Amino acid sequence: MAPTAPTSTLQTPGLKWWLTHLETDFHHENSVELYVGALKRRVIRNPVPAAVGTAQLFLRLISSYRFQSIRQLVDYISGVEERLSAARPREMSVRNMVRRVVGIIREEAENNGMGDQFQEALRSEDFEEALQGGPTALKKRPSLMTVKSFAVAASNPSLTNVFEIFSHPSSSITSSATSSPPSTGVAKPQSSVQHDVRPAIIQDIQELIEELDSCETNLAEYAMNVIHRNEVILTYGFPSTVQRLLLRAAQKRDFTVVVVEGSLNVYRKTHNAVMNKDTANEEDEDAAELAARKSLQDRGIQVIVISDSDVINFMGRVNKVILGTEYVFADGSLLAPAGTKNIVRAAKARNTPVVVLSGSYALCPITTFFEDQWIEMGAPKTVDFQEGYVIDNVEMPNPMVDFIPGSYVGYFVTNNGIVAPNAMYRATLDLYHMSECDLL
Amino acid sequence: MVDPTPPSGSAATPPPAPPAPKATPKAALKLAKEPKAPKPVKDQKTAAPTAAAAAGDGKRELTPKELKEKKKAEKAARRAETKGTSGAPPSAQAGHKPKEASAGNKGGAKVTVQQPATSSGGIVKTIYVTSGGSGNQPVKTVAKEVEVIVEPAKDRGLVGLLKDLSVEQNEKKKGPVFGLGHAHVDVHPAILTLGMQINQYVLSGSTARCIGFLLAMKRVIQDYETPPASSLSRHLPGHYLSHQIAYLLSARPMSTAMGNTIRWLKQEISTLPPDQTQEASKKHLVERIENFIREKLTVADDMIVKTTVDKYIRTGDTILTYGKSQVVERALLEAHRQGRIFSVIVVDNRPLLEGKNLLQGIAEAGIRCEYVHLYGLEHSIPSATRVLLGAHAIMADGALYSRSGTAIVATTAREFGIPVVVCCESIKFSDKINLDGIVSNELGDPELLVNMSDTKAREMGPLQGWKEINNMRIESFRYDVTPSDCIKAVVCEHGCVAPKSVASVLRSSMAAAAAGSAA
């Protein structure tokens, strides 16, 4: 289409750019720096690209990093993680990926009989923190894979003040990188640790990346369990996960889709997706791929586009609400694009079941306490700049996400299976091989 | 009122007269018709020749138009039956109606569907069966008929309903097509203008339309001349007014306020003393209309604004409102003028963006504002202390019928424990109940959703060309239904009432109006 043409020529760096960079000129220090910048500038944003980007980065980092012990490796990774998370605390898939990587290291360490080393690595990290003591330690983010929950509970959530974290020079990275690793209780010759463990770790991370790539396809496998004949499905926006699921269901089932166009942040994208138009300027490459397919309409599925305001009118005739999500917390609550709360509330009033699709990258081993801290605000969109005289006197908040408690959700569809909100805790912890959640 | 259809249509009770050769229930049904044939004697005389003619040439192949007509006739028949004394189950009737028609189609039993004649009071409808097709041919024809009647499976669910709605409203099956060329010759120029303004949403608010209607009616009545050999109280409402109203209806579906007004006006005309001269009657009516505008609309608004400001807008409040309501805007400005310090959260949404209009007005007056769309409601509503809403109508069960999106605001406010107050003139109180947000709602223009620009200039977005795509619809409704338990109070000119007691207010105010006209 004519209006999108000029923007598509303007190539903004996105995930593709980042992957090419990793492919061609990766550098163990510069690339981390570059990635921090990319996260900060929202060049890489949204859960999936951030997850893929992070996993790829760690794949390279681990294959190039020389370590003598498991502990050193874990220290190094958590140091990098700290910098990445500080760059973009609300993009939790970054952190989730690091957790997965650490989980992989642990698994491999245990497989090679170095489980105690791993445990020790964690403990010493805590120890280090405790040594620092005082307010600095309290301000620090909870460390990964913490063993003692009270230490986590005491630590202040960093989300509210990104810059404070950043002002503390990340000591752990420098210390772990420069200082010689403590060799307490390491019986094996150090070079052999790297030799034993690294190939396995790298292979596991590659599997993780494959899992990420096939995530949406795996989710779509559940289409037949979720959508049945003659149902009326309502969805908010038209996220690619939902789109894929519906397309899959359309191969066998006949149903009707009501697409709510969504907030000002997404409605253009929704319209594009509904019309099966290629959005070349969007950062997710999925759109192009999906656009190449046959649309729902062509497959004989009735699609009705409505505005947010008509949700209650339609809800009485809807059988099921299927939603995409940004992040899911271990207590079953979730973050979804702003406006979703209106949908789930209307659904609850009518007792319409709500199904949430979520890739495993979005499962955060965190239980929430302060809901507001998750709400990210965007630039004002409700009033154009032509109407400047209004802007002076008026506040125009533009929330990007809604926090939705788990009680609104019927069940989650993840690529590891269908999970009830109350079972989300267990499912998440199993995913990360953790014994308990962080409380934020 | 002629009721031609059999009282017992069910196959379980076969009619005694003809021996049924075919044991199938369908055949039995078919036969059940035959003893009925001579029954509507009155109509036989008039309808039989035309019946033969129509069956002879017209009914062979069913054009879509004919099909539509037939359906219409069937519907009218069904309605007539349910009105009639016989309590035959409607399902059975619905079942055998097409078969009758099919028999006529085949050439056996001839069936004439006489168009419902509405003019002479009540719907008269005859389905007439001439000449005995003895019951041995229908089975085949039934099958044929069924395949004509059955819609494609796709159109059965939600989409079918929506299609029906849009046919009903946009293609104006009921009324004449809107447009100056389609207006009846009797339609007054003032009404023509008003119709155009309403159709183009120049006058879009319920109150504005109502005032416009009354002012136009004033001119209509002033210009009205009773034809010779007729009296004003008979000719004016029955013949003359109905053309005006039909024209306005074709411009846009009637609002509750206008419906109430028309009812009032007709009552006024009917209670005119018959011995009064035409000039005196006209003068009286014009006076009454002026009074009505003052009482029910102008002063009513003033009263509502006063009550709202006195009771519900205090210093320190944060008032949340949705879209734009004239009364709410006036109340906010008045409270600001009185020196109360409060802030306003204007919630708005695509496609109409009426809230922006309100925002400009009150922001320029110096009220502190926040402007969000519905998706930001969750974020903004915790700071609100009160929700003030306008209304299109309030239903007899206390439900609020207002701009689409209001229900979201009201239900959210209830969840947050924020009281919702509705400002509504009692002329908008309806005696109907609306349970559903889709049926009996008014369809908006779907192109509004295609438009991506939030300013006057239209910018066609990615949805452009959606009409060419099969299986694709864009829907936008103008109103939605907010259940009464989300509403704390309704402010009308009589004071504050609970939403559930709206019906009784309506009754007493109607009684008062009737008393006023009698006096």
UniProtKB/TrEMBL annotation, chain A:
GO cellular component: cytosol; eukaryotic translation initiation factor 2B complex
Protein's UniProt keywords contain Cytoplasm: yes
InterPro entries found in the cross-reference section: eIF2B_beta_subunit, IF-2B-related, IF_2B-like_C, NagB/RpiA_transferase-like
Keywords of the record: Cytoplasm, Initiation factor, Protein biosynthesis, Transferase
Compositional bias of kind Low complexity: 173-184
Single Gene Ontology MF annotation: transferase activity
Subcellular location: Cytoplasm, Cytosol
Disordered, as annotated region: 173-192
Quaternary data: Component of the translation initiation factor 2B (eIF2B) complex which is a heterodecamer of two sets of five different subunits: alpha, beta, gamma, delta and epsilon. Subunits alpha, beta and delta comprise a regulatory subcomplex and subunits epsilon and gamma comprise a catalytic subcomplex. Within the complex, the hexameric regulatory complex resides at the center, with the two heterodimeric catalytic subcomplexes bound on opposite sides.
Family: Belongs to the eIF-2B alpha/beta/delta subunits family.
Protein name: Translation initiation factor eIF2B subunit beta
Source species: Morchella conica CCBAS932
From TrEMBL, chain B:
Stretches the record annotates as Disordered: 1-116
Compositionally biased intervals (Low complexity): 46-55
UniProt cross-references to Gene3D superfamilies, sorted A to Z: Translation initiation factor eif-2b, domain 2 (3.40.50.10470)
Keyword Cytoplasm found: yes
Keywords associated with the record: Cytoplasm, Initiation factor, Protein biosynthesis
GO cellular component: cytosol
Entry-linked InterPro entries: IF-2B-related (IPR000649), IF_2B-like_C (IPR042529), NagB/RpiA_transferase-like (IPR037171)
GO molecular function, one term: translation initiation factor activity
Annotated Pro residues bias: 1-22
Locations listed in the record: Cytoplasm, Cytosol
Protein biosynthesis keyword on record: yes
UniProt main location, coarse: cytoplasm
Feature: compositional bias, Basic and acidic residues: 31-45, 57-82
Pfam families: IF-2B (PF01008)
Subunit structure: Component of the translation initiation factor 2B (eIF2B) complex which is a heterodecamer of two sets of five different subunits: alpha, beta, gamma, delta and epsilon. Subunits alpha, beta and delta comprise a regulatory subcomplex and subunits epsilon and gamma comprise a catalytic subcomplex. Within the complex, the hexameric regulatory complex resides at the center, with the two heterodimeric catalytic subcomplexes bound on opposite sides.
Family: Belongs to the eIF-2B alpha/beta/delta subunits family.
Name assigned to this protein: Translation initiation factor eIF2B subunit delta
Taxon lineage: Eukaryota, Fungi, Dikarya, Ascomycota, Pezizomycotina
